């Protein structure tokens, strides 16, 4: 970081902060590619990979949001490991299995699916470790939106709060919730996630359309 550069002078970023995510912001009306505003996971990425992520941004992207973690890389990995105590390191190029229970996330207070659902469809998806849940589901034709927000959602910018899924198994292999995500989902079971800001590093089971209170949609 430049000692007298704008980032340094802002006081928001400090030397040693860990870059976790890059969120491209496409200029309104100029988006021509579905990948223009997809968050890019950079946890544990090498300098070259980070530079590559910037270099590969679409031409329509005029601005990016950067998500940082304040602490050492080991502390970041420890935070991502959550309270399980398991060591965590994002495996490079590893394939994981995402089991999707579609339209059947009837959950009780523990986030576990009810066995009474009769309309569930199960998909098994192979994906790269570190993939974004919303992206991998939509790429496979699986809708995560429970209403008209299928067409009016914020496209993964963590603004609409409507891409809710239930990570009913394997949640310890995903990134931890940010304060914003936890606040948005505060009236729901811990296993509920905003799929657009959830990254899977290990095998997970994801239920779409988990039941939520009506008040969730009127915040
Ligand atoms: S798509 Fe809007 S919050 Fe996830």
Explain how this protein is built.
The radius of gyration is 18 Å and the shape is globular. It has 219 residues and is an alpha+beta fold. It contains 6 helices and 10 strands. The protein folds into 2 domains: 6-78, no CATH class; 91-218, Ubiquitin-like (UB roll). The longest helix is centred in the N-terminal third of the chain and has 9 residues, at 47-55. Strands 5-4-10-7-8 form a 5-stranded mixed sheet, covered by helices on one side. Bound molecules: FE2/S2 (inorganic) cluster. FE2/S2 (inorganic) cluster binds at residues 153-154, 156, 158-163, 194, 196.
Summed up:
This protein has 219 residues and is α+β, with helices and mostly antiparallel strands.
Keywords:
three-stranded antiparallel β-sheet; alpha+beta; 10 strands; binds FE2/S2 (inorganic) cluster; 2 domains; Ubiquitin-like (UB roll); five-stranded mixed β-sheet; 18% helix; 25% strand; iron-sulfur; 6 helices; 219 residues
Query: In CATH terms, what is the fold-level topology of the largest domain?
Result: Ubiquitin-like (UB roll)
What characteristic shape results from the CA principal axes?
A: globular
CATH homologous superfamily title of the largest domain: Beta-grasp domain
Main sheet? 5 strands, mixed
Number of individual domains? 2
How much helix is in the residues? 10-25%
Oligomer: single chain
Which stretches of 5+ consecutive residues score pLDDT under 50? 107-117
Kindly state the number of beta strands: 10
Which strand-content bin applies to the residues? 15-25%
Strand order of the largest sheet: 5-4-10-7-8
Structural class: alpha+beta
Taking all Cα atoms into account, the compactness measure Rg is: 18 Å
């Amino acid at each position: 970081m430049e000692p007298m550069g704008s980032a340094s002078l802002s006081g928001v970023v400090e030397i040693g902060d860990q870059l976790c995510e890059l969120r491209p912001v496409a200029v309104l009306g100029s988006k021509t590619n579905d990948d223009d505003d997809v968050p890019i996971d950079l946890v544990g990425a090498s300098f070259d990979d980070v530079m590559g992520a910037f270099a590969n941004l679409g031409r329509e992207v005029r601005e990016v949001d950067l998500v940082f973690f304040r602490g050492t890389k080991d502390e970041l990995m420890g935070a991502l490991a959550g309270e399980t105590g398991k060591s965590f390191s994002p495996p490079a190029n590893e394939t994981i299995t995402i089991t999707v229970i579609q339209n059947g996330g009837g959950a009780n207070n523990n986030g576990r699916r009810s066995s009474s659902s009769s309309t569930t469809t199960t998909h098994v998806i192979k994906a790269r470790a570190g993939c974004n849940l919303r992206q991998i589901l939509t790429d496979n034709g699986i809708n995560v939106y429970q209403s008209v927000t299928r067409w009016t959602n914020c496209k993964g910018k963590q603004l609409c709060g409507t891409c809710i899924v239930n990570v009913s198994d394997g949640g310890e292999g995903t990134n931890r919730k940010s304060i914003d995500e936890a606040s948005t989902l505060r009236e729901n079971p811990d296993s509920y996630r905003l799929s657009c800001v959830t990254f899977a590093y290990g095998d997970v089971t994801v239920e779409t359309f988990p039941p939520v209170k009506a008040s969730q949609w009127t915040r």
